[in-house]
Structures are given as structure tokens and as C-alpha cells.
């Protein structure tokens, strides 16, 4: 007679017990500080390596750099006191990074409408994202105030 007890060492039971086990999705809220942005960058790097996109490869470095720029922009331009930013990393054949903040009135220009580097005010983070990512954009945040800036980087 088969027991209905859960055995955590049995990986066949684990895969059926959790719909998220084996999926390559990482999502977390971070404090809207430079320290939060650094932690977001580091955790994206760790997850990519765990999911088979090793440190030192072009795909890893590009994706981590794009995630770092989006997180830094959320802190610099999307900061609202007392509010965090949210990062989502989804890996399939591409890495999709989404960073959401709660500041709705400050939105980036649309892709293809970025100012020339010599005319840009402040940093050039989105120019870097535009150059490195295969696609990027932004949309109003769903179900909450603010916006989500996203980028996709090919892993091949």
C-alpha cells in the first residue's frame, strides 16, 4: 500500500508538489536605495549562473549589466520615500528583466526616442540598455501606481 506521506528527498514528489520548482523565475522586492540596487544586481547574477548562464559569459554579463541599470534607474528616478522597487527575472530562451517602481509621473522616453548621448541630462543608463538589450520598453504598472521598465537579452 502506498503511503501519502511527503518525502522531500524524492525529487519526483517535489516536482509535482510545487508548480514553481524547476521554473526559472525570480522575483523580489528591494529597498529603493543604492544598496538595494547592488543586491538586485548580485542576485540576478547568482540566479543566472544557477540556471545555466555561467559567470564570465557574454550573455551573463550583458543581462546582469542591463538588470543593474534598470535597478539603478528605479532608485535614482523612481524613488518614492518608503516604497520599494520590484525586480522580476524570467529566463527562457531570453532573459527578461522587469523593474517596477511606484513613481508614475517620471517616465522614460520610449525606445528609439532617447536623446543623443551628448544631449542627455544625467546618466546614460537607458542608452546602455538600448545598446545591450535586444528589446526594451516600459508600461504603466499593473494594479499599482508607477511604471515597469523591462528589457530582454538573448542568451544564445
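^ Assign residues to that structure.
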Amino acid at each position: 500500500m502506498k503511503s501519502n506521506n511527503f518525502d522531500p528527498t524524492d525529487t519526483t514528489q517535489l516536482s509535482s508538489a510545487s508548480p514553481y520548482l524547476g521554473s526559472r523565475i525570480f522575483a523580489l522586492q528591494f529597498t529603493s536605495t543604492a544598496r538595494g540596487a547592488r543586491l538586485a544586481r548580485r542576485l540576478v547574477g547568482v540566479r543566472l549562473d544557477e540556471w545555466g548562464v555561467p559567470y564570465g559569459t557574454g550573455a551573463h554579463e550583458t543581462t546582469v549589466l542591463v538588470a543593474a541599470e534598470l535597478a539603478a534607474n528605479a532608485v535614482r528616478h523612481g524613488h518614492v520615500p518608503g516604497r520599494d522597487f520590484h525586480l522580476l527575472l524570467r529566463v527562457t530562451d531570453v532573459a527578461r528583466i522587469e523593474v517596477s517602481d511606484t513613481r508614475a509621473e517620471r517616465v522614460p522616453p520610449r525606445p528609439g526616442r532617447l536623446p543623443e548621448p551628448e544631449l542627455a541630462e544625467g546618466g546614460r543608463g537607458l542608452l546602455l540598455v538600448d545598446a545591450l538589450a535586444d528589446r526594451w520598453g516600459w508600461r504603466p504598472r499593473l494594479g499599482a501606481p508607477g511604471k515597469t521598465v523591462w528589457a530582454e537579452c538573448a542568451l544564445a
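The beta strands are 25-30, 85-91, 94-101, 135-140, 147-154.
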